[in-house]
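Summary for the steering committee. One of the milestones for this cycle was to obtain a three-dimensional model of the protein with iron/sulfur cluster bound, which we needed before selecting residues for the alanine scan. The sequence and ligand used are listed below.
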Amino acid sequence: MSLLEVRDLHVRFGQTAAVRGADIVVERGETHCIVGESGCGKSVTSLAVMGLLAKGAERRAARMAFDGIDLLPMNERALSRLRGDRIAMIFQEPMTSLNPAYTVGSQMAEVRTRHKGGTRRAALDRAEELLGRVGITAPGLRLGQFPHQLSGGLRQRVMIAMALMNDPELLIADEPTTALDVTIQAQILRLLAQLQAELGLGLMLITHDLGVVARVATRVSVMYAGQVVETATTAELFANPRHPYTRGLLDCLPVPGKLPPGSQLGTIPGMVPKLTEGFRGCGFRSRCAYAQPACEADIPLYGTTHLSRCVLSA
Amino acid sequence: MTPAIEIRNLAKRFNVKQGFFGKPREVRAVDGVNLRLEEGATLGIVGESGCGKSTLAKLILGLLAPTEGDVLVAGQSLGALDRRARARLIQPVFQDPFSSLNPRRRVVDVVAMPLVAQGGLSGAEIRAQSLAMLERVGISAEMAGRYPAQLSGGQRQRVAIARALVLRPRILLCDEPTSALDVSVQAQILNLLAELRRDMGITTLFISHNLAVVEHVADAVAVMYLGRFVEYAPAKELFAAPRHPYTRALLASVLTPEPGLGVPDVGLGDAMPDPSNIPPGCRFHPRCPVAIARCSTEAPPLVGGAECHLLTP
Ligand SMILES: Nc1ncnc2c1ncn2[C@@H]1O[C@H](COP(=O)(O)OP(=O)(O)OP(=O)(O)O)[C@@H](O)[C@H]1O
Ligand SMILES: Nc1ncnc2c1ncn2[C@@H]1O[C@H](COP(=O)(O)OP(=O)(O)OP(=O)(O)O)[C@@H](O)[C@H]1O
Ligand code: SF4
Ligand code: SF4
Ligand SMILES: [Mg+2]
Ligand SMILES: [Mg+2]
């Protein structure tokens, strides 16, 4: 049984189809990375799993299960018992999930005592220990500080430590290391790998950083315009990208040594289509050099282990 | 020629209280920075989280007052300029697009704000210029009618960039401008910045954790550690032959997109430095893998753009 299984997820905000076919499976102990164009629905997908979509959002899926437990019929109370406990999330914008009115210590302690009970003192000790593990010096001092007194990178590490307070089984991390410099990024990624080895933590990692993806992912899913368009093991995806969007993405990277500084980088010309209710077919076709009439119909994910949602892969 | 930015002996210290009764501690966020940046140049600033990059940015923008030292922008102290003149001179793009955009205004109005504040343009012109700049950063007219909360993180960052560019300022100060963006949008923004620099001779300060991006855009790079520039060099030299041990560790930590190589451990240890308790001697010595006896007592002098005892003749 997979730790997380999402099949054919759809999310709509009024007339906008933000997600229109996301399939994501995360196994215990593995890291599944999600990459894709900004606005393609990565954060919305993760919020849908957590039951945290904005009011007015409509969600449906063929299946959405955590450790075999069906998440679809769950009410808010049941979900909130899982959230922050067996499933933890690190949000893309730390300031939206840190409360400016409370100190770091009291927010972290609350996460622990709410789910696991115990004393506030014990919770604070654990918070201090975790802040140390994510590379924060003088963690005791930081416990007494308010979020606005911390640098961007410190806030991000507070978020990471807070997500680990209850030893989650599944961690959904939305751009957890983008605000961090490369040495601390490496340290956090090593810490997460260690937790995976020790506790079998399953990690769903959303990131724009293809360097991070290459180095830590077990599998990668590429999203475009609300759909997962390609899924493969990491080595396979980098060596043999099949979807034209994935290929374009790999060409946009500034690769020192390959491209002279200041030169034009590869881009993917054009814009994402407006995804209104009736939109069908490949979302990439207005930008794709191989577009053909068949691309206007809905396209399934082709393949068995290396999946690609493209008529060229049929 | 007057440099675009000149910084002399700049320092910023914060007092942080520890609990209700604790002794206040002094955080030395920026601790003696000097810089001379010529018009039209692009300076990359890199360094550890919390080393003082954003504080330095706020000092340059005049959003914070220095504890010591001076900042001159185009030869003038920002305090001497009125708000409108300042806005035409220097514009910021910040790290966190969510908190920097007014949530109650539509995107097009967010971008129009600086033009409105300058005065002298008709409403129709303002709208046209705002939409044109939005289109240039890849935001369609349909999205321009939405509120910031209805955009993705990357879309919001493009809006912030459009707002900074709409006045065509002489200096652009970007604090992590592309870290919220996917690589294809990042490539668009970097190409756009390169174009603006060519067309308008815009001077850019570019703070980023992405060293491949810095290598691509910057003429010169300052490496910051615990509030100081520990190495300053032309980008080409710095990336080809980093000299300071911290710079070398930083470059060795870069994760290139090569599967199977894993995440390197460059031997800096897990304890990050504390700006309220700066080590004596070389501030990097507790973590430096090649420290010598002198490093824990004597501060290294600045020689040839780097502060390290091993580099002094
Ligand atoms: N509350 C909302 N109301 C309306 N539309 C929304 C809302 N939240 C997100 N969207 C839209 O849904 C789409 C997907 O957004 P999402 O935040 O998931 O993007 P993302 O893939 O995480 O992008 P990024 O990489 O920039 O963070 C976007 O087009 C966005 O504008
Ligand atoms: N208003 C403030 N009050 C107290 N301390 C502050 C304040 N602003 C910044 N600091 C401290 O100053 C130091 C430098 O912070 P700064 O935000 O400049 O770092 P940074 O280099 O931009 O980091 P990052 O890469 O994480 O954004 C940090 O230790 C931070 O906690
Ligand atoms: S389905 Fe058609 S338009 Fe879409 S990526 Fe494949 S060839 Fe291009
Ligand atoms: S002065 Fe000493 S401790 Fe500092 S960087 Fe050089 S060798 Fe390392
Ligand atoms: Mg997102
Ligand atoms: Mg910063």
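Key point for the committee: Chain A has a mean pLDDT of 91.
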